[in-house]
Amino acid sequence: MAKVNARVEAMQKDPAEGKRTLSGITSWNGGAHSTTIVRNFAIPADEPDAIGGTNRGPSPMELVLTALSACIAISIAYSAAEDEVEVRSIDIDVEGDLDLRGLFEVSGDVRPGFEEVRVTVRMDADAPREKIEELVSRGYRRSPVADSLEERVPVRVSLGWEETEQA
User: Fold this and answer.
1) 73, 125: one domain
2) Which H, E and C letters describe 31-43, residue by residue?
3) Residue 114, Cβ neighbours under 10 Å: how many?
4) Within-domain flag for 9
5) Which residue has the higher pLDDT, 123 or 15?
6) Residue 71 lies in a domain
7) Structural domain tally of the chain?
């Protein structure tokens, strides 16, 4: 927590210290398979065989669920550390309902995204149930991924274009 506390202190002195732009570069590998480079990590994504993929990685929507549950776990752990609650384990089950008719434009009235996401947190800590419930609630509220999903963050898409010389 020393690094986290130092960052919090810096942000309290200067709000600009909290601003970050995160980025990644995704390359299509053919079919439904792609690889995204984030910092020094290569993250594969693919679809299952049943919908035309080659199953060489989690689907993009599975990665969304992964991001959500990982972010909630981190936020709960930070909240517990701030309150000096010793945590032995945090396990999160996450599942989302998806109607593929939206992706494949089979039905114009079906969204391509999740219809509902359910998160179940199991936490073992040196605290009464009420405190654990409060930590889970606070962890969810402060999760940037949960906030981004619930608040429908604007996404701007543009075309990057490099002109090639005609010989």
Assistant:
1) yes
2) CCCEEEEECCEEE
3) 17
4) no
5) 123
6) yes
7) 2
Buried b (16+ CB within 10 A) or exposed e, 33-68: bbbbeeeeeeeebbbeeeeebeeebbbebbebbebb
3-state secondary structure of 144: helix
69 in any annotated domain: yes
Q: How far is 55 from 45, CA to CA, in rounded Å?
A: 8
Which pair of structure tokens corresponds to residue 141?
A: 């509220």
Q: Are residues 118 and 103 in the same domain?
A: yes
46-83 residue pLDDT tens: 999 999 999 999 999 999 999 999 999 999 999 999 99
Q: How far apart are CA 130 and CA 123, in angstroms?
A: 12
Residues 116 and 72 in one domain: yes
**Which amino acid, residue 157?**
V
Q: Of 5, 34, 57, which residue sits at a domain end?
A: 57
Q: What is the reported pLDDT for 97?
A: 96
Ordered alpha helix ranges (H), the chain: 2-13, 60-82, 100-103, 129-141, 144-150
pLDDT at 15 over 90: no
- For residue 67, what is the DSSP state? H
Query: Quick one: which H or E segment has residue 105?
Result: none
**Residue 146 placed within a domain:** yes
122 has which bridge partners?
91
29 shares a domain with 107: no
